[in-house]
Amino acid sequence: MKSVRPITLGCSKNRVDTEHILSSLEGHYEIVPESEERDYVDYLLVNTCGFIGDAKEESIQTILECVQLKKEGRAGAVYVFGCLSQRYSSEMPELIPEVDAWFGARDFSPLLKAFGVRGDGRGGRYLTTPRHYAYLKISEGCDRRCSYCAIPHIRGRHVSVPMEDILAEAASLAAGGVKELIVIAQDTTYYGLDLYHRRALAGLLQKLSEIDGIEWIRVHYSYPDDFPEDVLDQMAGNPKVCRYMDIPLQHISDTVLSRMRRNVDAAWTRALIRKMREKVPGVVLRTTLIVGHPGEGEAEFGELLDFVREARFERLGAFRYSEEEGTYGAEHFRDDVPEKVKQARYDELMSLQSGISLDFNRSRTGTVVRVIVDDFVDGILVCRSEFESPEVDGEILVRYSPDAFDGVGPYSLVGEFIDVRITAADEYDLTGEPVFRK
User: How far is CA 365 from each of CA 369, 403, 420, 423, rounded to the nearest angstrom?
Assistant: First the structure.
């Protein structure tokens, strides 16, 4: 049986695509884990990101490294698919001709055909995450036209996955041991408008929570415009829906938000945050912001800093504006903020957030939280509570002791829920001790 080693770059939505494809290849090929280095594999399968400049550079560098492995005789062929090759379908084969085949991000049938397998890559899942959690993609594409974003050009218009298909996939994941679902899309709050002529995310969350075996459901990539408030009702009243909301806001200045074409203003944004904190006591908010967008002067950046001080997001990430060809921003604005200024603003923003995150984590010291064990490394149980999402947030680290778990081995605890008392914290990770095992 020939071997395939996948390499997935970019966001969790790409990871789901890879897992669908691997499910179609399973049984026909040996699947080599991405983290496993071998002297030789028959195929290197690279799923690329083409969202912003840094991501494109990482994708190209990874492809070149795979090509080098092929030249050294350590790989038989290199196949590339995903956002980068979709976006630059004519340029990439000329730029890196050593790649054996290029495929897009929308139709996986040609890729599977090249492997001699029938299908469209939309069936089952071959998990590349730990078996107790999985990402669940509920739609594809985006109807938004934010000035900085190339996703609609790459992924096309918004298309919701029928609810019955999502529930069937979730039930299958649960039957395989998944306990936590992370709901993702380009815009999760837009779910259902095309199929049901209404925003149906809250109803989907309710039905997902009724699946046996599912204990946690968390929501990522929510758009603030016309945010469906019944989702907050689910968070407040459904014990399986994590009190955790990922809502990329991008900015607070009305000037910048208008240029970004976000369809919201500062007043709307502040009102929405207040509503979230009022309706869901204890909710943890994660957001992403962009610095250096055209039109962001010192005054607008100052507004952004003041907003972060005021909102005190528990989790926050940031990007430096990257002018992307084909976007509204590239066609209508001059990229007028120097790169050094972008970097300085990014550093200042993240330094501010570091202090806020540290305060939040320290406030949790002494509390008892329910966590799920993700891994066991060097004597430490690596855990998360409902307030930490995998891969993007910090972790809760618990030193393993046989006595604390009645002799249960540490690897048997992976994927299980335990209660932990937080004993120490830094701006990213927390330390805890077991209270008792559930």
Answer: 10, 23, 11, 5
